[in-house]
Amino acid sequence: MHYIYVPEFNGQKDSIPEEELHHLRVKRISDGEVFGILNGRGRITYVYFREGMIFQKGVENVSQPKDVFICSPLPQGKRGSFLVEKLSEIGIKGFVPLITERSRRKVNISKLEKHVIAGMKQSGNPWKMAVYPPMNLQDVVREFLGHSLYFGDREGEKPEMGIKGVFIVGPEGGLSENEKGFLLENGVRPLSIGRYILRVETAAIGFALLSML
């Protein structure tokens, strides 16, 4: 099934943006073929076209995603867009571009939002993943006070499947000893998802998938 993103769909064809109608034309949606409209707040409206008019077939309300957040530096180029799109497909609650001693990259939030929507449409996820402004480790600890916080470390404990919380992934080269010390002093637990050195996006997606099992 194909999906489009229309946050304010009112049941009428004219409430669907031209960009999304173009997407349907590219996908060659035929008369009578059902497709889903995602509103980004948990609702999927199933509709179809018939002789230029739109008809509703049904509505599905999906429960909110788990409290799972990924905080990681944004990899450069296509690796960064790949990461955001895949996290959106998996269905986590939010992504935080992380600033560390070894990663200080400018982030275009509006561009990331487009990749979030692409992930929704690919997977049929009706919840729009939140993209936070860039934060450093101190910001993350303050922002997510009351949540369970973890950071990736090859020497850490093995996580349980379905674990929820805020997962901090270090940059290429890893977190510095000072940064690890700060996290440990603030009760952030080290977790390991393997003995080998992983790319940022591999570790981030790994934690996201682990939390959904």
Automatic annotation (TrEMBL):
Keywords: Cytoplasm, Methyltransferase, rRNA processing, S-adenosyl-L-methionine, Transferase. Residues 64-205 form the Ribosomal RNA small subunit methyltransferase E methyltransferase domain. The keyword Acyltransferase does not apply. It catalyses: uridine(1498) in 16S rRNA + S-adenosyl-L-methionine = N(3)-methyluridine(1498) in 16S rRNA + S-adenosyl-L-homocysteine + H(+). Its EC number is 2.1.1.193. One of its GO terms (cellular component) is cytoplasm. Specifically methylates the N3 position of the uracil ring of uridine 1498 (m3U1498) in 16S rRNA. Acts on the fully assembled 30S ribosomal subunit. Belongs to the RNA methyltransferase RsmE family. This is Ribosomal RNA small subunit methyltransferase E. It comes from candidate division WOR-3 bacterium. The lineage of its organism: Bacteria, Bacteria division WOR-3.
